[in-house]
Design goal:
Length: 245
């Protein structure tokens, strides 16, 4: 009756890894659009799930994905408000207005004297926006992504986090591969993808040897399709050498 739920089992075995990271990033493939709470195919999670994610040490939630407009633009706006009301929790890939888009695309955080810039975009959405704002980033808008990469160029690490690919495919599509190459050529230092719900290959692209994890699979899932309960977590370690590199 009080709209609270016990999510404590979800990350109980990996929350130490979350909490121990200087920046922990998670794909937010749901909204917090309010009651009635709903599951597939149009998601609205209880507000207290955001509190749980924050308590596990998650710092950044990725919002450019195919489910962010599941409850329309109003649901996306409420999601922004709910996440931003939690001190220390950041959204990437969505903005309530033009000022916020400028500030968070890319989203840049500093930790221990190093800066990390994050860019998040999606191949599309299941339902379209029904108002001008909030806006997300689309994979087809190469100019917006290029502009974000240019603004991120001074960061110590430029991380691109695309929502892309074919669901349930264990290998990346040609579209993923060509997009990854374009991202690497335009300034991405590392690329980590979501959406297929299963793990995909890890490769390196261009002479810069940019690592690409095409898909990590699900972190939490009750899917029954093959491989959808095989999950990966990427850990990135940054080291600054005495010469400044």
């Amino acid at each position: 009756n009080d709209s609270t739920y016990d999510f404590s089992s979800y990350f109980s075995l990996i929350r130490d890894s979350h909490a121990g990271a200087d920046i922990c990033i998670a794909n937010m493939e749901f909204t917090t659009a309010g009651k009635p709470y709903t599951g597939y195919p149009a998601f609205s999670a209880p507000d207290c799930y955001i509190d749980y994610l924050a308590s596990c040490g998650i710092d950044v939630l990725l919002a450019s994905n195919n489910h962010i407009y599941d409850k329309g633009s109003e649901g996306a706006s409420r999601t922004i408000h709910r996440v931003q009301s939690h001190n220390g929790l950041h959204l990437c890939g969505i903005a309530a207005d033009s000022d916020q888009m400028e500030q968070t695309n890319p989203l840049t955080l500093r930790r221990k004297g190093m800066s990390v810039s994050m860019i998040n975009f999606t191949y599309g959405t299941n339902l379209g926006a029904d108002s001008h704002w909030p806006k997300i980033n689309y994979m087809s808008d190469r100019q917006r992504i290029k502009d974000a990469l240019d603004r991120a160029s001074d960061a110590d690490l430029v991380m691109v986090l695309p929502h892309w690919g074919e669901e349930y495919s264990l290998v990346p599509s040609e579209s993923q591969k060509t997009t990854a190459l374009w991202l690497a050529e335009n300034g991405a230092d590392i690329i980590i993808g979501t959406h297929p719900h299963v793990p995909q290959t890890l490769e390196t692209v261009t002479e810069r040897n940019v690592p690409v994890a095409f898909s990590l699979g699900n972190a939490v899932s009750n899917m029954s399709a093959p491989n959808t309960q095989m999950e990966l977590m990427a850990t990135i370690r940054l080291v600054r050498h005495s010469d400044g590199d």
